[in-house]
Amino acid sequence: MAGPAFAMTGWLALPQGLTYGRLSFREGIEAVTPLPPQAGAKRYILPGFIDTHVHGGGGGDVMDGPAGVQTLCRLHARHGTTSLLPTTMTAPWTQVLAALRGVRQVLDLQAAGGLTDGAQVLGAHLEGPFISPGRLGAQPAYAVQPTPEQVAEVLAQGCLRAVTLAPEVPGVAAAAQQLAAAGVRIGVGHTRADADQTDDFLDALASHPRLAATHLFNAMGGIEGRAPGAAGALLAHPAVFPEVIFDLQHVHPVSLLLARAACPDRVMLITDAMRAAGLGDGQSELGGQAVTVQAGRATLADGTLAGSVLTMDQALRNVVAAGIPLDEASRMASAHPARSLGLTDRGKLLEGQRADLVVLDEDLRITDVYLGGERLIAPQLTLGEP
């Protein structure tokens, strides 16, 4: 039986822009009704955020297994993320497979009606181990060259939705074809590939509708006039969806504006969050490596950035502070990632879409989150969060 009907009024982040109106919904959105703007109206209603690259949060990590996945889902739901891809670390092969099995168990739990207070898991993002050992970033040193048997093994876990690959690694070109044939989004990242290698890799996937740049600009070198590198090739490609970690640590605002100019309808906000997200400053870990979080910056002992402690609501506020309109920032957090995964049931405030909603006050702080029309009561920030 359908649940009770709800209605909210406020500034709606519609595909055509911010419009004052009323949103009526149950599990799905039933009506979007424009209304004359009301004086003093300060409420904004956005589609729920979709994070396609998140390792952890609230003390939980994907590599911990099902309990870690559930913990991170709960933390990020309180910050407006209604759908996500739990993302693995480069690790020994048995640990990678165990993490994927954990994601599969949470998918099964949600299908059975469990984890109603956490973001919906859409599948897993395999970040490594098929990456360059020379561009690990904060990934542990367990990169390997893929074999057809390994690719078949990860696909057999029944949960893979996205993967990060380094084009120059032997075996990766064939692995990409195998993964693309299974409908997996192919991302380029953690790579030493130059622009020509990246172009050749992408050209071989020309018929595949789901391509991405894994945390664009990070772990792939810079852009120069005579050496545009992987980042330049990815920005120039007409179908690639670039992920951006906009925590003001990983990416400069000018770099975000460059990505936006090159890919105006494809830039995706991600958190790349680690287990320390939501816990404030202090000591944590990532892939078995000690991490220090200070003033919102997470680093390994050698100073390497170690993922982030970002949440999607803070990423949205950062984007707006960089001068991008709220409705466009909303698309970066919802509509674009949905399209990158081929999702048609979420990411927009339209009739028939899932009622995954984020309600913000005039300072763009979250007041309510709805998951499939169910209200996540009184989202509270963890002590120590901004």
TrEMBL record:
Keyword hit for ATP-binding: no
Domain Amidohydrolase-related: 44-374
Enzyme class, spelled out: hydrolase
Taxonomic superkingdom: Bacteria
Details of cofactor binding: Binds 1 divalent metal cation per subunit.
Keywords, ordered alphabetically: Carbohydrate metabolism, Hydrolase, Metal-binding
Pfam families in alphabetical order: Amidohydro_1
Presence of keyword Hydrolase: yes
Cofactor(s) required for function per UniProt: a divalent metal cation
The enzyme's E.C. designation: 3.5.1.25
GO MF terms held by the record: metal ion binding; N-acetylglucosamine-6-phosphate deacetylase activity
Positions bound to Zn(2+): E127, H190, H215
UniProt-annotated catalytic positions: D272
One GO BP: N-acetylglucosamine catabolic process
Entry binding sites for substrate: A138, N218, A219, R226, H250, L305, A306, G307
Family: Belongs to the metallo-dependent hydrolases superfamily. NagA family.
Official protein name in the record: N-acetylglucosamine-6-phosphate deacetylase
